[in-house]
Amino acid sequence: MAPRATVLAPPIAARKPHQVPSPNGSRKDDYYWLRDDTRKSKEVLAYLNAENTYTDSMLAASRLLQDELYGELVGRFKQDDASVPVLRRGWWYYVRYESGREYPIYARRRRTMSAPEHVMLDGNALAAGKAFFQIGAWSVSPNGRLLAYAEDTVGRRQYTLKVKNLDTGAMLADTVDNIQPNLVWANDNKTLLYVEKDPVTLLGVRVRKHELGSRLAKDPLLYEERDHSFYIGLIRSKSEKYLFIALRSTTQSEWRYVDAGNPKLIFKTAIPREQNHEYQVDHLGSDFIVRTNWQAENFRLVRTPVARVADKRTWKDVIPASADAFIQTYEVFKSYVAVNERSGGLMKLRVKSWDGRKDFMIGSSEPSYVMELMRTPGIESTKVRYVYTSLTTPRTTYEYDMASDEKVILKTEPVLGGFESANYKTEYLRATASDGALIPVSVAYRIGTKLDGNAPLYQYAYGSYGICSDPAFQHNWVSLMDRRFVVAIAHVRGGQEMGRAWYTGGKLLTKKHTFTDFIAVTRYLLRIKYAARDKVFAQGASAGGLLMGAIANLAPQTYRGIIANVPFVDIVTTMLDESIPLTTNEFDEWGNPKNELYYKYMKSYSPYDNVTRKSYPAMLVTSGLWDSQVPYWEAAKWVAKLRAKKTDSNPLLFKVNMEAGHGGKSGRFQRLRETAVEYQFILNCLKRPELLDSH
């Protein structure tokens, strides 16, 4: 054991009162000075580095435990693994890793997988000498000779377009900075469409086309979105005939389309945007296939002629609206349509033939699972791919022939280190919320774990934007289950697991359901003796970090420890500032605090605003200096205020990644080291709390 003298005193941030104005009054913020948009302030950087040094000193005595955990996590992954190859225009494309290397290699083979390998991009070579590196998107031209890709070398999600000649290996001079990782080619093999970001808000605001060899300054504007509550995406139809500009806000959609072979690329509007209408489009023959929530809260699937898509009188139901099944997404084929439906809180797979002869669900024998459709190229094909997984079953990729009903396994994700699914059990439970709602809970544990009220619990949730926390296999959780943890996912309101009403029941003026649901799940698991009252740990990231901050204020005595990754905890200040990325897009999610009703409601649960003088659980908070989604200063201010207010001696650790953004480190092994630190923190709290005594 390292000597106690090596443990430093926690950093204490200076208090510099600052008034944050709003139409509904101002709020005092003693730690506003920790915001530095330039990331160059010596005072701010010194404070962040001091927090990192303190955290390192607190963890140093149990470094051997961290190394042990890291070894387990790395040892569970097959290091030279590869993705399932996908056939596009005569080439098999796949992504693979090499043993001991951090980044993926993007490769292809002509016609058969026995042909010589053609490496398109080697992420390891491209990342050499860089603290952060990420390829956010890549797209091969229709003739297969050119590769366009978007790379980020900072972690701020401001990507640079690059183009490579796949015949010669030469890089073209064409580059465009500050774009989204979203690229599509026109059929002429020389025109690329990309989304340009606003340099301040980092929102995608303009679609431009770049003709290879042309001057960047002359890239023509194809579309500009002036409503900054909308996101922009570029998509090629499954049929390859159309290019789409997909525009979406929290409550509205608008798609624009153009023939991919049209040299002028003048887009037409499919269905004009209207309040509370969300939809998406794909193409088949002379028709569009549309997923829409018009007169269908849980969405329906309709077919309509391309030329009359905006005329709702032409819409013919393919899958009608249902109160019990939520349509998540779909894949179109010439003779079939495959649909991901959510019912009973689980994502299932439905297959239907256009001639009406087939319409059925693919079954599962497990109580809690996920069946996720994969993008499957080839509109003429009768084969659809999907991934099946559960908390105890590694991701398994199936190819299902919708004509013959034959199903083959293309790949089962390898899990090394002696893992056997049969040694673990998953269950699907329901906890009762404070208002009587039944909250689904997916749990898993190693067989032999005694459910007698003594097991430690690791509980996760997200609960925002309608994003579902599906019970998919998590390699890292095996290390917890093997230590007799019960792991649980609380499918709280704010997600969409139980349909659209589940989402609307946890946003805007009902947001507090997300927090109280999570606490209700914890207390339910304690009541049925799936966990010990003094061994409960909670984890969440981003908007899930907001959830962590809220439960820390609402029920601190319920949790032994909380891990909050890149937490969104200063919600009122952030949502008042429209220069911060994503703010304007999210008024329909959180509310606009310029409105007094929303201001008061948001302030009533904002984790930063509700820190008070009381005891808090042990906490590990992480952030990234270059985070564009949730700026680092939210976590920094929250930690500073907690240090000043909390009355306990429980550890409060803050770890700032000085070379990354929202997703943390870019290398696969680097990310596992971060997980090892989190588990080290948890196990220290359980077994050796003296190593984390913050004086």
Mean pLDDT, as a whole number? 94
**In the CATH scheme, what's the topology name of the domain at 4-75 and 418-692?**
Rossmann fold
CATH level 1 name of the domain at 4-75 and 418-692: Alpha Beta
Strand residue content: 25-35%
Radius of gyration: 25 Å
Give me the secondary-structure category.
alpha+beta
Q: Tally of extended strands?
A: 37
Characterize the biggest β-sheet: 8 strands, mixed
User: Low-confidence parts, pLDDT < 50 over ≥5 residues?
Assistant: 1-5, 689-695
User: Strands of the biggest beta sheet: in what spatial order?
Assistant: 30-31-33-32-34-35-36-37
| Distance linking N and C termini | 17 Å
Shape: globular
CATH H level of the domain at 4-75 and 418-692: which superfamily?
A: Alpha/Beta hydrolase fold, catalytic domain
Helix content: 10-25%
CATH architecture of the domain at 4-75 and 418-692: 3-Layer(aba) Sandwich
How large is the count of helical segments? Answer: 12
In short:
The protein is α+β, with helices and mostly antiparallel strands. Helix content is 19%, strand content 32%.
Topology (elements, then pairings):
Elements: E1 19-20, E2 27-28, H1 42-60, H2 63-75, E3 86-88, E4 91-96, E5 105-110, E6 118-122, H3 123-127, E7 134-140, E8 146-152, E9 159-165, E10 171-185, E11 191-197, E12 204-211, E13 221-224, E14 231-236, E15 242-248, E16 253-259, E17 268-269, E18 279-284, E19 287-292, E20 300-305, E21 316-319, E22 326-332, E23 336-343, E24 346-353, E25 359-362, E26 370-373, E27 383-389, E28 396-401, E29 407-412, E30 424-432, E31 438-446, E32 457-460, H4 477-481, E33 486-490, H5 500-504, H6 512-527, E34 536-541, H7 543-554, E35 561-565, H8 571-576, H9 587-590, H10 596-605, E36 618-624, H11 632-645, E37 652-657, H12 668-687
Parallel strand pairs: 32-33, 32-34, 34-35, 35-36, 36-37
Antiparallel strand pairs: 1-2, 3-4, 4-5, 5-6, 7-8, 8-9, 9-10, 10-11, 11-12, 12-13, 14-15, 15-16, 16-17, 18-19, 19-20, 20-21, 22-23, 23-24, 24-25, 26-27, 27-28, 28-29, 30-31, 31-33
